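Take the subject:
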Amino acid sequence: MADLPGRSRIGVLLVDDHQVVRRGLRTFLEVQDDIEVVGEAADGEEGVARAEELRPDVILMDVKMPGTDGIEALRRLRALANPARVLVVTSFTEQRTVVPALRAGAAGYVYKDIDPDALAGAIRSVHAGHVVLQPEVAEALLSQEEQPASGRSGSLTEREQEVLALIADGRSNREIARALVLSEKTVKTHVSNILMKLDLADRTQAALWAVRHGATA
């Protein structure tokens, strides 16, 4: 993760073009013992710059913003290999918004009407390496007709299929290692092989692939 020396809490960057939203999020998050708001940004371009400067652990990012939107900001963060985990927090529910955001590297996608305590839980989950999707988001993804360009579950070994199922269950590498009695290094190797064989970019896409193709635990 992007922990900085001396940081004992999860550092969060707020990226939203509405000041009242940022203020509300900050007010709630500042009362959490394990979460610290390290900065704010009003659009995607500023968000990327602040992410590089502040190195937050988690970024709460809206999708639709003037200028550089959230999806383009996600792409830029990935190109920069910024380690922050991005949780999209938005009011846009359309499938055409959800899918590009996840493909661009979002670790989760929730709506702005999410319960505050659930939002805090989502921040902790993505920081721990999990994929977080509200049920409505998962349903929208499963309803899409588009399929991956390549890759078949039959190309995976039995162990890789077990790892893939646990990824779809939202498990982190450490949790997968414990469940399968493997080292974390071995799990990382399996994850890399899964992504390569299925032609996927990251574990978020792997989780979605598994759900869509019934390769779940």
